[in-house]
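#structure-requests
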Amino acid sequence: MLAPTVGHYTFVRDDGQPLDYIPGQFIQVHFQYGDGTATKRSYSLATIHDHALGPGEAVEIAVSYVPGGAATALFEGLDIGGTVDASGPFGRFCLMPADSNKRYLLIGTGTGVTPYRAMLPQLETLMRQRGVEVVLLFGSRTPTELLYGDEFRAFADKHSNFRFVPCFSRELPDNPHQDVRQGYVQQHLAEFAPDLAHDIAYLCGNPNMVDACFDTLKGFGLPVPQIRREKYVSSK
């Protein structure tokens, strides 16, 4: 359990083959409602893997539990060794090889932070190769809901070009780090002075946050191609 209502799951393919992917992509898990109707849910891959060493094997995802949710029942009922049917990877919410920006603004809430966890090895390479700066603004209600927070803080401590800025809307941690903020991520975006000449922004998570930050970034002059979005919608 990453948080009281979020589980971390690791899978491998049952045929023993790797499942290669680009950090930022997602898989779809297929299952059925109680009446037999087919449905599916999408989950961003959270796996940290250096793809320069070959394709990855383990697939890691974070699953938010929704009361009464059919997908929640599926995952909560999984034992170690259990299986799911899935397809993918899909999606283009990825760092692009042609990017020449000076800074990435990564903005997420809840499980919307999972693609950024998967991007850490790529970001480490980009910081080393062309001096890219990265700011990760992560919105959470409370410290117990800050998914992978210790990992992001450790990464920030190790890399001077990476800032981890948790924004807590309901409760601050004891003895907060100097980069901790109170409120919503969209309230603190202006602090980092988004700049069309230098920045590419990524938005992932709550649709209201994504829309609010999108409007803020456009207000700072960022063109739409420099704002990459992925919305997470909870459904039963």
